[in-house]
Structures are given as C-alpha cells and as structure tokens.
Design a protein that fits this description.
- By secondary structure, the protein is α/β, with parallel strands linked by helices.
- It folds into three domains: 2-81, Orthogonal Bundle (Arc Repressor Mutant, subunit A), CATH 1.10.10; 85-198 and 355-371, ATPase, nucleotide binding domain (Nucleotidyltransferase, domain 5), CATH 3.30.420; 209-349, ATPase, nucleotide binding domain (Nucleotidyltransferase, domain 5).
- Helices cover 40% and strands 20% of the residues.
- It contains ten helices and 15 strands.
- The strands form four sheets. The chain has a five-stranded mixed sheet with strand order 6-5-4-7-10.
- Helix 6 (195-206) crosses helix 10 (354-371).
- The protein is globular and about 70 Å long.
C-alpha cells in the first residue's frame, strides 16, 4: 500500500512539473532547457523529461535557429509551444450578419468569413443557418475537427449561468440553451456568450482597452447595449445582464440607432453609417445633426454607467464606429453636466470583427484553463 501511494505521489508530481514547463513555454517561446530550468526552479533532467512528454503529446516542438544565428560551439536546443497544435472558433451572429474566425492556440486568426443575414429569419431558421455556417467554415479551414478545441458564439441577448438565453432581438431564442444544441455530437468545448460581453473582452485583449482595468464598452449599431470590466475582469452580474441599460426606454438607448438613418448620397458598396460619417467629416449640417442626435440619445445611459462604475475608459464599438471621430467630442460635451468625472472615450479599431475576436479570446481562455491547469490532486 505504501509503495502504491508513493507511486501515485510521484506520478502526480511528474504531471505537475510537466504543467509548470508547459505554462512557461506558453508564456514565452522559444526557450532553452537551461532557461526553462532557471525560470521554473526545476532541475534540468526534470525539465528535459517534461519537454519530452509534451513533445509526444504534440504540444511542444524544437524551434529552428533564427536566421543569422550562428553561435560558436554546439547551439543550445530551443523549444516552443506549438500554437498549431489546435485551434478555436469564434462566431458573432447578430440580426444582420454572421462573422466567423478560426484562430490557432496563440490567438492568430488563420481564417475568417463574413456573411449577411436576413433580419426577418425565424429563430429556428437562424439556428439552422448558424449550424450550417459553422460546419461549412470548419470543413473548409479545419478539416481535422478534433483539433478544434473550443467554439464560442456571441449572441444578441443575455446568457445566464445555466446557459439559457434571454433575447429581445431574437425572441425565439429566449429560454433556449443554445450551447447545448450546438454542442450536440461536436468535440471540444462549446460556449455561448452575450455579444457585448465578448466585445469588451476583445478590447481588453487587442483593442482600445488593453491597458485599462475599469472599462465600459458600448456596442452601437442597429441596437445599443453595454458591458463592463472591473479590475480587468468581465462583470457579468448574477444572471449575465450587468450593464444592459439599453433595456430601459426612459434612457433613450433603445431608439438611439434611429438617429443614424441617412437619406443622403451613398457611394457604391458604402453602408448607411459610412455614408453618414463621410458626410459629417465634410461638415454636412444634416449629418452633424444626426450624429448630435445620436449623442443625445446615448448620453443618459452612458452617464448612468459612468456614475455607477466610475470607469477610466469608455469604448465605443460596433456598427456606429465610423462616426466616432464626430461622435466622441459631442458625447464628451453631453456627459460633463451629467457626471462627476467624464472618462476618456475611445473608438474601437477592431472594426466588424470585435465580437468574433472576443469569442476567440473566450474560447482560448477555456482551452488554456484546461490545458494549463494543475494535473496533480
């Protein structure tokens, strides 16, 4: 019995050491065995054994010398985390469009696709379109389906801790556990999250909020919704609805998108908002009045969040970002009499991929939590 317990302890210790080495390579690659030993505090033989095991699992590989590197003597072997060992899928399905991104385990996007959606589609037809879109996209870009370690879908609606959706945009999805339906028969993790929550994750990862902790993200376009991070962590609230001030008609956010309608000239292939932004940039009085009306409708809700959270940054993302250059000073001006301190306001640079990028980040978080978790009890 004592030998069995000792063997169990040694196996658990080996697993833990292997995870420590994997974390170190995931954090920074490539590294030599000596660098890994120094960085982890493990002995060189222990590190070497861990690297060998990780290589057998396909998670680590020897790194080729960089061009121009010709050190004297025998060069030290360098090892790297294999970002190509798997992939994740991020999806943004809104009322009018679907965006799909496939990324490797380092977060590099290796394939992307955007498709328009009929806003009149029923909930069941939209679900069928989502399934078919994901299938065809993965068939084209990730034929080895078991290598897709996680999928995350951003939806217009709150998602409770039980995975059940509440949506006014796609009412037929309310009360549905979409993640369970999408996961049926698929390998890896399947996650569903509110789109604006994913948008703020993307801004914290690769966008305007990379250096900010307390952030309010305002997703604009055909509708307006909000999310927030506190201390750098997404604040979802008890049922996933934190920050959803767009639900309150009194605040004006629910009708804000109506201000962005533009009857003026549009170039071929130009969106309505892009045409409005172009006109505003030239000083067109009608366009400036439209953006000012949009700022008027946004300001009460943004001010309420600013007073509640006192964020260091407000990020404007989504479909209305083309008017951002005109909108930011107007919104700042309107917030001054409504708040104690006007936070800095930034416009997202992620374009129409913000929510899908956030979905990639959320999927990566799920994979990393499993992959880099302590394997010892």
């Amino acid at each position: 019995m004592r030998n069995r317990a000792r063997g169990h302890d040694l196996l658990a210790l080996r697993r833990l050491n292997t995870t420590v080495v994997l974390r170190a390579l995931h954090r920074r690659s490539p590294r030599t065995l000596a660098e890994l030993a120094a960085g982890t505090g493990l002995s060189r033989p222990t590190v070497e054994a861990a690297v060998e095991e990780l290589a057998e699992r396909g998670l680590v590989a020897e790194s080729a010398a960089r061009d121009g590197e010709r050190p004297p003597g025998r060069p030290a072997r360098r090892f790297r985390f294999r970002t190509e060992a798997g992939s994740v899928l991020g999806v943004d399905i809104g009322l009018h469009k679907m965006v799909l991104l496939l990324a490797d385990l380092g977060g590099t996007v290796i394939a992307s696709q955007r498709a328009a959606i009929d806003p009149e589609l029923t909930g069941s037809a939209r679900l069928g379109l989502l399934r078919a879109g994901m299938e065809s996209f993965l068939d084209a870009h990730a034929p080895r389906r078991t290598a897709v370690l996680a999928r995350c879908v951003g939806v217009p609606g709150t998602v409770g801790a039980d995975g059940v959706i509440t949506s006014v945009v796609v009412p037929e999805w309310s009360g549905v556990d979409l993640g369970r339906l999408l996961a049926d028969g698929e390998p890896g993790h399947t996650l569903v999250e509110n789109d604006v929550n994913l948008a703020v994750l993307a801004e914290r990862w690769q966008g305007a909020a990379a250096l900010a902790g307390d952030v309010v993200c305002v997703l604009t376009g055909h509708r307006v919704s909000c999310s927030l991070t506190i201390g750098g962590r997404l604040h979802r609230g008890r049922r996933g609805g934190a920050g959803e001030l767009g639900m309150l008609p009194l605040l004006g956010m629910s009708t804000a998108q109506e201000a962005l309608k533009w009857p003026g000239e549009r170039l071929e292939g130009e969106s309505e908002v892009a045409a409005l932004a172009r006109a505003a940039d030239t000083g067109d009085p009608r366009a400036l009045a439209a953006v000012a009306d949009f700022a008027d409708r946004l300001a009460p809700g943004v001010a309420a969040l600013a007073l509640a959270v006192d964020p260091e940054l407000i990020v404007l993302t989504g479909g209305a970002t083309p008017v951002g250059r005109t909108l930011v000073p107007l919104l700042t001006e309107r917030l001054r009499p409504m708040t104690l301190n006007v936070p800095r306001i930034a416009v997202s640079s992620l374009g129409g991929r913000g929510v899908a990028l956030g979905a990639v980040r959320r999927a990566l978080d799920e994979v990393e939590e499993e992959l880099l978790a302590d394997q010892a009890p």
